[in-house]
Amino acid sequence: MSDRSIDQILAGPDYFTCERLTARLPKSVCIQRQTKRVVIGPTHWYLCFDCAQGAEIAKSQDKVVPQQKPPVICAAEGCDKPAGTRKLCGTCYGRWQHGRLPEMGPFVRIRKQTGQRAEV
Question: Is residue 22 part of a domain?
């Protein structure tokens, strides 16, 4: 690395203060998180995909951020994570599978070989 200190790098023109993540980020990382849904760091991409500040940064960098559908949010009451299988996030899906999510009804396992439903 060069003789520049970390403070000088973070204060440079390629970095900005992200209001949503409350951190200094490279502008290129912000654009990647919006366009490619790339997880860089400990936070999830869905925090960045509809960010107005990120859209302004992409516009200033002459990058086009495609309009994306908002992520499907978990159907379990009180959960705001992105959903996956059966409109539930991974945590709530596991709770439902083990009978700890009664508002979703009984868990029905589908056998992969036959495609038939089997009650658990």
Answer: yes
Q: pTM, whole model, 2 decimals?
A: 0.46
pLDDT tens sequence for the chain (120 residues): 556 788 887 888 889 999 888 888 898 888 888 777 666 566 666 677 778 898 888 888 776 555 666 778 898 888 888 887 678 888 999 899 888 888 888 887 766 666 566 554
Q: Within its chain, how far is the Cα of 14 from the centroid?
A: 23
Please give the backbone phi and psi of residue 35, each rounded to the nearest 5 degrees, phi first. -85, -40
Residues 51 and 91 in one domain: no
Q: Please provide the DSSP assignment of 65-78 as one string.
A: ----PPPPBP-STT
Residue type, 104: M
For residue 45, which of 12, 82, 11, 75 has the smallest C-alpha distance? 82
